[in-house]
Amino acid sequence: xxxVVLGRWVDENxxxxxxxxxxxxxxxTTSIIVxxxxxxxHVVSSDxxxxxxxxxxxxxxxxxxxxxxxxxxxxxNTLKIIKTIPWEKKWLSLLGWKGNESLIFGFDEPVFxxxxxxxxxxxxxELNPFSGERQILRTDFPDFVLTNxxxxxxxGWEGVSFDPTLSLAVYPSFFGEKKEMYTYTLWNVSKRERxxxxxxxxxxxxxxxxxxxxxxxxxxxxxxxxxxxxxxxxPGVFExxxxxxxxQTEQLTNL
Length: 255
Prior knowledge:
Blueprint: E1 3-9, E2 16-23, E3 29-35, E4 37-44, E5 50-58, E6 64-75, E7 78-86, E8 91-98, E9 102-107, E10 111-112, E11 119-120, E12 123-127, E13 134-137, E14 161-162, E15 168-175, E16 181-188, E17 193-197, E18 204-205, E19 216-217, E20 223-230, E21 234-244, E22 249-251
Antiparallel strand pairs: 1-2, 2-3, 4-5, 5-6, 6-7, 8-9, 9-12, 10-11, 12-13, 14-15, 15-16, 16-17, 16-18, 19-20, 20-21, 21-22
């Protein structure tokens, strides 16, 4: 149950943008069309009452006039804007909520990894949009692939997928003697220890680290899903897998 937010350009000139609210319980959809602006990065809070997204305004020539972060309350099948904040240049992408209070961004600021002399050109920012409090999140994970491949190359692949409480993180990690391959590691952030490494259900060459969609957490942080495969028995056959917070795995599909 809950509200799913979808979006699309209405016209081929990319001037009018439609936001669609889909009620998963009833199947009812509500359309909100805005002119001379676009929206993106919609993320929903854990209690499903708030939606944050980016909004850009354009002039008659299509030039960007203003970029901002918008916080809206879900009121039935409508969105009611409760706060706007100017979008900062270092905010690369809006990744999700920590509970119902803070937002997580991909952040354009170099950080060094404790496990490598190289620096990653991306970090992660936690921002409370109501109080303004912010902090950089640590990403000095063991064998973190992004210490060697430092950029996010396309939307939907952000390097680290934090759970809604920021107590767990899934990230791409090298494995093997030559570190030519990578898998996903589930990491306990507070204890700073590995929960599980998933090379038995996912392995790929590290040169292609950004070609697979990132794992996605459930709103309560109890589990995440991702596209994986069994490299030993079924290489190249991709399935949907579920991983619980304590590292238990389950194959969900048989395609």
